[in-house]
């Protein structure tokens, strides 16, 4: 275990640098080179609600000082990449819409490759998701705007929607049962805020899936689409990527299954107790490294540089 988290009494002993592997075992044939890209989840890693988490500014600056590529990879679908970049910049953090990959962007990218330009797409989500799909050249509209007699849309995309209601679930149910593709940005049941948790997009997706009696195609973590898109837009292989996240079941699973080096930071969802339980149960994958917070990242990068 890397950094201060290893010094805490009762911390789970992990072998630093060991391949985490996927749910079915280690990733085969991974030839790991020096780290060229550091990718970070946002909620619970860089910030929690409006609070910038300890060490984030210094850690991100250190990544750039080393000449590494820096990206943000988030399941959050509520904000457009430009809005995420503006928030990063306002907090004094490295910004730029091109650095940001969201599950909304990946859903739009995937749909663009599947549907003709201008195809109708129903959205249960917020402005960021709607805009990303519109940017992809598709005719996106909110489920609440559906009218009796409308043609069945080509797809329904469901993400975090803090205004969803029975009528919007019913509109999505009608469209999916009518043959529309059913996509979910992510199935995170919760997201972290200062002092606790709130329901995540997974709660909305679960309602639609139950009503439609169909499981969605998943765009966000732990599905591989975000990892594949990250490699495509950066030109950097998973084997040369360090992924830093706060959830064992999404961030670490996606990163490990893709062949990335993974680090769990204990400032978000997964705790030392969760890690201890997963280790005792033999659950895979486990993170390659564990950080108490991002203040420990520069030391981890020093260690990785010394063995590359």
How far from one another are the termini? Answer: 18 Å
CATH topology of the domain at 104-218: Rossmann fold
Tell me the Rg in angstroms: 19 Å
Q: How would you spell out the order of helices and strands?
A: EEEHEHEHEHEEHEEEHEHEHEHEH
Mean pLDDT: 89
Helix content range of the residues, please?
25-40%
Structural topology:
Elements: E1 37-40, E2 47-48, E3 51-52, H1 56-65, E4 69-74, H2 81-90, E5 100-102, H3 103-114, E6 120-124, H4 127-135, E7 139-142, E8 155-158, H5 166-177, E9 181-184, E10 190-193, E11 196-199, H6 201-212, E12 217-218, H7 225-234, E13 241-245, H8 248-258, E14 261-265, H9 272-281, E15 289-291, H10 297-307
Parallel strand pairs: 1-4, 1-13, 4-5, 6-7, 6-8, 8-9, 9-12, 13-14, 14-15
Antiparallel strand pairs: 2-3, 10-11
């Amino acid at each position: 275990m890397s950094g201060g988290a290893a010094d805490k009494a009762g911390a789970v002993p992990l072998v630093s640098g060991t391949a985490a592997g996927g749910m079915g075992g280690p990733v085969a044939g991974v030839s790991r080179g020096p780290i060229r890209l550091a990718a970070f989840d946002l909620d619970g890693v860089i910030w929690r609600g409006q609070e910038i988490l300890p060490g984030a500014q210094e850690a991100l600056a250190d990544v750039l000082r080393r000449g590494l590529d820096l990206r943000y990879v988030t399941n959050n679908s509520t904000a457009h990449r430009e809005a995420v970049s503006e928030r990063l910049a306002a907090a004094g953090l490295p910004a730029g819409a091109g650095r940001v990959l969201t599950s909304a962007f990946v859903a739009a990218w995937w749909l663009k490759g599947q549907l003709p330009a201008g195809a109708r797409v129903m959205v249960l989500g917020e402005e960021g998701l709607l805009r990303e799909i519109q940017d992809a050249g598709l005719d996106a509209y909110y489920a609440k705007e559906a009218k009796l007699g409308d043609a069945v849309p080509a797809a329904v995309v469901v993400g975090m929607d803090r205004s969803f209601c029975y009528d919007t679930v019913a509109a999505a149910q009608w469209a999916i049962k009518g043959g529309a593709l059913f996509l979910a940005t992510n199935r995170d049941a919760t997201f972290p805020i200062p002092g606790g948790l709130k329901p995540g997009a997974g709660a909305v997706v679960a309602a639609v899936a139950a009503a439609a009696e169909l499981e969605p195609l998943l765009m966000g973590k732990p599905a591989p689409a975000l990892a594949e898109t990250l490699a495509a837009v950066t030109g950097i292989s998973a084997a040369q990527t360090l992924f830093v996240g706060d959830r064992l079941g999404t961030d670490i699973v996606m990163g490990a299954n893709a062949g990335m080096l993974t680090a769990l930071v204990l400032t978000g969802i997964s705790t030392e107790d969760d890690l201890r339980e997963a280790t005792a149960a033999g659950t895979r994958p486990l993170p390659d490294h564990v950080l108490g917070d991002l203040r420990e990242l520069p030391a981890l990068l020093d260690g990785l540089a010394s063995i590359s």
